[in-house]
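Box 3.1 — From sequence to structure: Exocyst complex component Sec8
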Amino acid sequence: MSTPPTKPPRGIKHPKETSGLLMSVIRTLSASESNEQRDREKAKLEREYKKSDQRLDELVSLHDQDLTQVMQLFAKLSARVTLSREKIHAVKENLQACKMLLHCRRDELKKLWLEGVEHKHVLQLLEEIDQLREVPAKLTSFLNKKHYLHATQLLVSALTLGEGGLEGVEALREVRADLQSKKQQLHMKLMEELSHHIYTHSTQEVLSLCRQGSGRENLLNSPFQRAGELRNSARNPKARRALLDVSSPLPNSQSTRTGLSAALGQPTEGDVSEDIDAVDPEADSEHFMAILVECLALLNKLPDAVETLKVEMQTELLAIISRTTKQIRDGPMSITLAQPGQGDPAAARQQPLLELLQTIFEQFRHVATAHSAVLQRLSRAADKYHADVRLYEMADVWSKIQAVLQLLLTDYLDIQNTAGDTPQAPTAFTEPTSDMSMYFARRKPTRQKRTPLFKFDYSSHAHNINSYLKDQIRDGSAAKEYQGTGKPPVRDKQLVCAPDPRNITFIFIPLMRFIEEIEHALGCTPGSPCTLNAFLADYVKEVFLGRHHLMVQRAIETATKATDAWRATTAPEFMQQLGVSRPLLQSTVTVERCIRDLHDLMQALPMYAEHFLSIICNILRSYRETCQAAYRGIVQPDSEDKRICSAAWLKDEDISRFIKSLPNWTDLQKQKATHARRRLLRREETTEEESPEDIRQRNLREAEILASNLGEGGVSAHEILSDTSQLRGLAQLQESMEWFACSVQLFASHLPRGDVPSPHVQTNEAGIPALPESSVQALDQLAVEFEELANTCLLVLHLEVRVQCFHYLLPRTNNLGRFAGSVIDSQEPDPKVLELSRVLVGIDEAMNSSLQLRKSKYIFEGLGHLIAKILITSAQYIERIDEGGIQKMCRNIFALQQTLTNITMAREIALDHARHYFELFYLTPEEILNNVMEKGPQFSELEYMNAFQLIHRSMPDADYGAINIHLSRLSDILGEVGVTV
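Predicted structure (token representation):
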């Protein structure tokens, strides 16, 4: 064997083989002109040929082994290809032979193939029949565990299978009938579960809190919404995503076996999944309701389900009210309020009804939320399965809620009884009625024409209360309220409190808050309220306001026209309840209660606050006229030509202004402000001690002014109020008017003021909206007028006591001109003095029982200075006086001093001053002048002059020349001393 050529070392490159050189040589040879040139080219060509030949030899020797191997492999492949061609030719010949043989036995083979297909189909049917036989047991198991989605998928797949390939199997007729029955039962069960979760399961937490006695405050804070939000946020996010994405198709006849296998336990592809390992399938209520809707869609029952939900909505809502009512009636609150002697009747009626409404409102909110979730699932299920169904809307839910609440309010507001009543329209209190003055004035009373308070003949609202009740009577559904299906149409009248139109006063604000929620949910505009809002507005306007206005009118008429209307209440418990220490007039207390009741109505019905304020102002105007008539009836005598001196004085603005400028009056007003604060704090009234000098300086000026005005003309008997009962009535009127004015001022101070009232914006703590400034100012002005009447009564009493002192003590009017001889034999005080003492004691008893201590003090304080001034001034009217007359006058002064001391509980130093004055008459004019020079003047110059004149008149041989000398010396001495008293 020849050795294979060695490969050239790596890195050595052969010259590049090209054909360009040969072609170039050929062209050169063909184009050459000389032989030399041709020879050169041939030599060159030969050299190149030799090089190529040498290179070829080298390549052959180099690749000889590879070429040998290639040739060997080519020979083998050629042999195999030849063999394969021969085998293919043999196979083609065999196939032709088989074809001929099969063609000859075609019918026999076809018969065998058909028998195999039949046997395979029979085996499949037997397997499906076995699966159908297992469906009832598995379906029962799923239903017991409330795995409704698996149960529905299993049932639908079984029904599809039974109505498909196994439809003609007579042995499965009972199985198919049983499955159809179970389908109906499952549909009813699904609807029952869905209704339970919408109306019962979603509200059971609210009822549980109510059962535990959570109270109204917890319900007002709406903890159920916060708890619902926490539950929603804590739910499984996968389940929530699955709930929001519905895309699984219904099983059909082409995938019967696949759907049945999936229903028998294999998981299905879809958005609503059901965990069969869950302990409580109902833990997530929203997801559970989504499963129920999906099951209804699988059963092709969406239209029936929607219609059932719409039909049973009102019945279920009424059932919620019935359950809540029973819960509150059987709760701990009802037991507490039912115990005799505990709690007030208003609280016993108010708290259970408030709790009922708040609990119902919260449950209705949860029901609306549940309906919203169900509607979303129904909409997606209808789109997914292409169901032809018309869904209800949330507006339908809120409409049913409003209808149910209207029925509830019809019971508790007693509308069925009040709507049929048409009470006589009361007076509008637009002008003060003058007929009340007939009880006090001596004139023929005039009556005003009564005008109706409200007229709603042209109301824009289509259904008023009466038409609404007629519609409810005609409506057959109204007869089934509070009753479930299958029960007789009898209304369950179990209520948590007695029906009463005044129940609206404490449920109005919670109702309006819930109505605002409804209108916000419905998107109502301010000009188009919801039906419940219109119903409530019609009731308040057409029924409640009219009836209450009539009640107020009757109460005011009873308070002012009854026989005991102007008698004071003296019951201690009643006075303690009012926080007063002195009796008040029955009429004042009754009117104040009416005002307080209207104030409560302003808080309870803030939308009608301005209307109630106008009623209050009209009532106050009417009562002001009545009280002024009562005052005139006391101070005006039967005869028009006679007058009461004290009241006539107060008509003079100058005198009235003077008396109110005196220190004792200004000090009384300061005490009044302090007393008002004590009244708010329920403290006892106290008096502050003052020095005698302070009292003397405060009352001296008043005594001088009164003496200068009344001391000359005197006071007749017809010019005084001699009847103590009249003075007591005047005192009671003063006390009542002051208390009433304070109450009105306090009421007005708490009213919010504004230019534009807004019934939906609460501007103060009581919830009353802003009221017009003019109306509140009118109320303030009325309070001022009542206070002025009280001040007038007190000033009349103050002056009346002093006027009576002038009447009894002035000698010009009571025949006390002589204090000498046999006139003074009696050792008793003068009868007029005794009568004055008796009158003062009677007045004091009347004032103490009718007026506060500070007012009684104001009436009697300074009276000693006035009496002393009257007695000292009376010296100029005495004709003669001797030692017995001086003693008589001292006894009179002592009797009056003792009487005033018992009244004021302080020694009347001013009467000591008067007694010292009359003791001057024991002295001679010279002795009096010497005392003035030694001790200074104790009396005024006029009083000394009157004393000198009386002494000279009492002398048997009076020397009128000496009197001038004494008076001249008196003037000189007083001028030297430089002091006048």
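Summary of the box: The longest strand covers residues 568-569.
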